[in-house]
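Incident log, support desk, overnight shift.

02:14 A customer reports that sequence design results differ from what the structure should imply. Their input is reproduced verbatim below. On-call engineer (initials T.W.) acknowledged and began investigating.
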């Protein structure tokens, strides 16, 4: 039987590519599918240069397909406008997409589109090809975005930023949990915010495709997943995808990095005592000001803890030198770092991949969120899951020192215990009998059914 041909289109950014490439590999590991994975040419080049994706994919029926890109598509931290980014991507990628969808020699049976690329949905619908959506964020952050129109209708948005500690009352399922300051940062900028309008427009399209795939697991987000199902009944919670990949595919550990990984930091970690190092990283987009970086540095040094800090060359801030207790790298092999026994805490921006990677490794977090879903994730890490502390808008040296000590010093501390319990639940969800294992099988069967 010939394999069904799936086209996967992620938004061209590290966080989106990582999780959608993991899904692509999982689908290719079955005998049913082969995948064409669309990325702009500059991402294709960086994946070939820095990740082991191309060699790893050689043994799978998975092809990275480069498409042209426009001037606004490479994310430059600090000057990033989500609307320009998506508009530019849509105008340059659509012709290639149409061509691929019209190719009778090598027809596409099904599309899995990033759920913030509604032009992919429209183009595939025009071509009569079934579409599934995948969102690369948490269920809780997705639900907040989904509820924004309701918050506007009930006049809880826009709000006065003088009192950001007021709790939300019209956010179903999260009443009393989220404060104004825990909403995506764009909510602080009034209803005309381009980011808010764009994200709201994209999110409102989510009920249109055949189903929604989320990189999360039932044990972590069951109440929110149930709420989403009331509006989008066909939901697949298949995460954590990187853990899922490890259980279903054996072989070399994967890297999907767009930057060169500095693996020497693993050797440095080997020389540090168990649970003694804080890993510090803010993902691929966040820009850190010199002032904030100084506060973080003082907070870490004053805590007396060792640290391994990722400072991307494009992340702003200042140069930080390696020292006795600290090591600085440009880009780390993050999954391996978090799994290292020397690492006992993670100062993170709470991007969803980083959060999930920390959950799977059982490492408690100190959260310093910047924008978007990170604001919501960090509130859940602290106030709901109890596996870390949320700095939110207060990054100063005293707060950093206190939170780092809170998370790492008290060995009997609940953070460690809950982090270990959640890590166990995450691992159980992706093995046979687990909820994510079941949902992935259901997704595979449903894709087969819509294609037949
Ligand atoms: C963005 C958003 O910020 C995030 O909230 C959204 O859910 C997806 O898109 P990003 O900011 O890059 O992503 O954060 P994150 O989702 O955490 O993804 C970063 C990825 O880069 C992680 O998989 C992490 O392991 C990897 N990484 C980061 C490295 O491999 N090495 C590093 O040094 C830093």
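02:41 Re-run completed on a clean worker. Output:
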């Amino acid at each position: 039987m010939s394999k069904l041909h799936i086209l996967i289109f992620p938004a061209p950014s590290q966080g989106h590519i990582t999780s959608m490439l993991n899904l692509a590999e999982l689908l290719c590991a079955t005998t049913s599918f082969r995948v064409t994975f669309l990325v702009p040419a500059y991402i294709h080049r960086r994946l070939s240069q820095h990740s082991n994706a191309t060699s790893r994919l050689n043994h799978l029926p998975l092809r990275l397909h480069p498409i042209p890109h426009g001037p606004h598509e490479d994310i430059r931290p600090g000057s990033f406008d989500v609307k320009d980014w998506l508009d530019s991507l849509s105008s340059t990628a659509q012709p290639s997409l149409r061509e691929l969808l019209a190719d009778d020699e090598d027809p596409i049976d099904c599309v899995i589109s990033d759920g913030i690329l509604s032009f992919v949905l429209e183009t595939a619908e025009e071509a009569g090809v079934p579409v599934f959506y995948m969102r690369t964020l948490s269920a809780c952050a997705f639900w907040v975005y989904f509820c924004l129109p309701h918050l506007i209708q009930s006049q809880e948005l826009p709000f006065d930023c003088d009192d950001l500690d007021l709790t939300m009352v019209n956010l179903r399922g999260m009443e009393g949990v989220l404060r104004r300051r825990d909403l995506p940062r764009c909510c602080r900028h009034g209803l005309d915010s381009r980011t808010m309008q764009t994200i709201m427009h994209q999110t409102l399209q989510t009920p249109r495709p055949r189903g929604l795939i989320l990189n999360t697991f039932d044990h972590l987000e069951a109440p929110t997943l149930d709420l989403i199902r009331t509006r989008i009944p066909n939901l697949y919670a298949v995460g954590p995808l990187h853990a899922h990949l490890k259980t279903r595919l054996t072989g070399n550990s994967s890297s999907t990095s767009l930057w060169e990984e500095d693996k020497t930091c693993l050797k440095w970690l080997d020389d540090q005592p168990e649970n003694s190092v804080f890993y510090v990283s803010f993902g691929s987009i966040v820009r850190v000001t010199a002032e904030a970086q100084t506060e973080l540095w003082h907070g870490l040094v004053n805590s007396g803890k060792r640290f391994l800090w990722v400072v991307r060359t494009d992340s702003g801030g200042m140069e930080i030198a390696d020292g006795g207790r600290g090591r600085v790298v440009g880009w780390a092999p993050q999954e391996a770092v978090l799994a290292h026994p020397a690492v006992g805490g993670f100062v993170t921006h709470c991007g969803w991949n980083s959060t999930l990677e920390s959950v799977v490794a059982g490492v408690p977090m100190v959260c310093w969120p910047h924008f978007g879903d990170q604001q919501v994730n960090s509130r859940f890490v602290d106030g709901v899951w109890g596996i870390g502390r949320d700095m939110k808008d207060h990054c100063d040296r005293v707060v950093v020192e206190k939170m780092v000590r809170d998370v790492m010093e008290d060995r009997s501390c609940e953070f460690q215990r809950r982090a270990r319990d959640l890590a166990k639940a995450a691992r159980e969800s992706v093995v046979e009998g687990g909820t994510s294992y079941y949902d992935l099988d259901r997704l595979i069967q449903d894709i087969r059914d819509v294609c037949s």
